[in-house]
Amino acid sequence: MANSTRSADGDSNESPLTRRRWLALCSGAAMAGLAGCGANPDDPNATLSSESTGSEGGSNSNAVTTELHMRAPVSWTPSDSNVNPFSTQGDIEYWMEYMWWESPSYPNAVGEPIYWLAKDISVQGGGCEVLITLDENHTWWDGSPVTAKDYHTTQLITDYKEYGGPDETDDGWEVVDKYKIKNVLSGPANPAVKKVDYYTPVAKHDYYKSWLEKFEDASGEQAIKGVAKELNDHTVTLKDLTDKGLGCGLWKPAQLSPTNAVHEKYQDHPRADWTNLETFNWHLLSEKQKAIQALNTGKLDFGDKLTDQARTNDQTEVFSRFGMSGVPKLTMNWNNEHLARRPVRRAIAYLIDSEEVVKVIKSAHGIKYNSRKTVFGMSSSLISDWVSDGFVDKLIDYGSTSKPEKAASVLKKAGYSKNGGVWVGPNGSKVSGLTYLTPPWNIYKSVGKYFSSKLDEFGFKNNLVVPSGSGFYKRWDETYDFDLCNWFTTGSHPAYAYSTVEVSGLGNYDEIAVATEKTEGCTVNRTEPELDQPTSEKLQHPIRPKFPKQIGQKSLNSEAGQTLYPLKWHKIMLQTQDTQEVKQLTEKLAWYVNWQVPHVGFYDEVKVYWGNTNKFDFPSLKADDHPHAEETKAEHRTTAMEFLMKGHISAKTK
Question: Which of 184, 433, 535, 620 could form a disulfide with 172 if both were Cys (CB 3.0 to 4.6 A apart)?
């Protein structure tokens, strides 16, 4: 669920990342947030609380049903879980946190802010202050109000645990009044980016204040680290969560087992009357065949996977489909002598057949994604919002279908020839033995198998490697032991799509940059940082390369060149208050990616939702029929869990 960036990627039994790490990999957004968490009741099949928050029939006795069934594609052992939000260990999926806690805001699939605990977030003081006003109607499950003090404690503990204390961070937190908190920044923030940056779930002050006091009393770095370790090891069970009122979400866990999680509505939640559902039954089905069987036997009411089966099922139909910011892509490692050459990367861009990839996925997984026309480093929906009319038409057109003749022509002009079905470089080195890495997700595996064979057929000999989840992340994020890799570019804003802190964006450049001095006052930092080396450490991307000024120009001559300043431009996009400036920099970066081809997108991700529309009303892209319908339309472009958690699903009445 995090950042709404993972779409229908098939089923996976792997859960190697904490929520914070996943968000860092997916979005490039700076995280001051909480780590993965979980639970540990004595009996994994136990009822967690003796108090009932709802009953069958509930708030609308005329409803067809008050219980909704959906699937979570995961295996889970509640007895191994730890729901301490400050712990990095425990058997829990990162998006489970949002079942039980809420954050001030959350980004939807296209980057618009969804207000959760917050009633309003305003960027003030030239961009250097952010005032977060909480909704006064939210309460913890023990009935006490969720206040600015809760959020303040959450942020201070995070600062101690992650950075050694608030004095070691660049920003600060001030409680303004009971329901207002101010985030004082070291420099200005772009409002479009900052308003969706407060997605850290809020922890309860009354429970965690003793930990904050321990941090404040700790003397020295080692003492603070000792408290941080103690807090990280502290266990909070799911029974603690309910009995001690540590959650504030719409749904409280009632009964949990490794195959089923029953949640009952928290009746005092401010959105409780938005839905007449009383019970949410979460079937924990990690195996696709079991999930299909459950769907076919009428045990699933709602979902965003198994789309093909849902379309042919008499009881379900698709009710919503919309584009997202995710672009699954092929990343190329420039440590390989061939992939370090632009003509080889361009040849691969010409080879990729986006329309055929979309057909392969539709045939194998029942999901219809959108094909891409050319290379520009971000989703088609984002590019249309952030560049001028006609800009895309000026770019180098690599096409949405495969152009093997064009690819061969580009290679021959670069001194390559074909020998025995294999391309050979100008120095006699064959393009063979390429390591093609892909994560163990079903759709990504399908894409890998398809394109690996296409590369072989063309004369780029490669070996497809599909490691375990942990094995993949080690190679992708640590050792970079690959030549080609299936991953994704994502981000709800160009600043994230062209991030300089990860290869999910433009590249990982910050690791070799020497920090520059801060600017005086609340002004955008437009300085260019010093660099320790000319290329990135892992993928060997040049940091300040030349590229043509004229968009669409394939070759570079020195008179018409311009220099890429990714670190400087990325910083400006995160800080500027000027939307037009972001658009100008977006065009420069999109043109650079189009010309340089560090990676190539396969398709644009799409979210597809299906449900039993005979029994339930689901959110479409139109407004609902509740009093806050218009202002909450942004919540309709998000993930399946959030539809449920924000009260947008109700049972139809007789």
Answer: 184
Pairwise CA distance, residues 186 & 188, whole Å: 7
C-alpha distances (whole Å) from 462 to each of 337, 435, 450, 539 are 14, 6, 12, 18
Structure tokens at 496: 């994230």
Cα 480 from Cα 122, distance rounded (Å): 40
Query: Nearest CA to 463 among 429, 419, 422, 432?
Result: 432
Distance, CA of 609 to CA of 588 (rounded, Å): 36
- Cα of 342 vs its chain's centroid, Å: 29
User: φ, ψ for residue 370 (rounded to 5)?
Assistant: -100, 135
- CB contact set of 268 (below 8 Å; sequence gap of 6+): 139, 143
Strand positions, DSSP E, 420-515: 422-424, 434-437, 462-465, 484-489, 501-502, 507-508, 513-514
Contacts of 203 (CB under 8 A, 6+ apart): 34, 85, 86, 101, 150, 153, 154, 157, 246
- Could you give phi then psi for residue 176, rounded to 5 degrees? -85, -50
Give the model confidence (pLDDT) of 117-154 as tens digits: 999 999 999 999 999 999 999 999 999 999 999 999 99
Place of tokens 């009044």: 177
- CA-CA distance, 442 to 310, in Å (whole number)? 18
Which pLDDT score is estimated for 636?
Answer: 85
Confidence of residue 33 (pLDDT cuts 50, 70, 90): very low
